[in-house]
Design a protein that fits this description.
Layout (H helix, E strand, L loop, with lengths): L1 H81 L3
């Protein structure tokens, strides 16, 4: 009977050890999943900022083209007034 009890106790000890290791692996996986979710949220935030910056860059390019056209028109008028045109 003592032999059976020792075997059962040994098996329970091994089971508890495997259970503790499994819990440790599960906790590590949960930490990694949390990091992954944080990185995903950060990626989405950065992608939004990039879209916003691209839109601003496009607007600045448009305004720059308009300003250059106005400067070019003004320079042509000045040349006409000065008789260089």
């Amino acid at each position: 009977m003592d032999d059976v009890r020792e075997k059962v106790n040994g098996a329970l000890g091994r089971f508890e050890q495997v259970l503790a290791e499994t819990e440790g692996v599960f906790a590590a996986l949960m930490r990694e999943a949390s990091k992954s979710a944080q990185l995903s949220a950060e990626k989405e935030r950065l992608e939004g900022q990039l879209r916003q910056l691209r839109a601003q860059a496009e607007e600045l390019a448009r305004v720059n083209r308009e300003a250059l056209a106005h400067v070019d028109t003004a320079m042509n008028r000045i040349r006409q007034v000065l008789g260089e045109g």
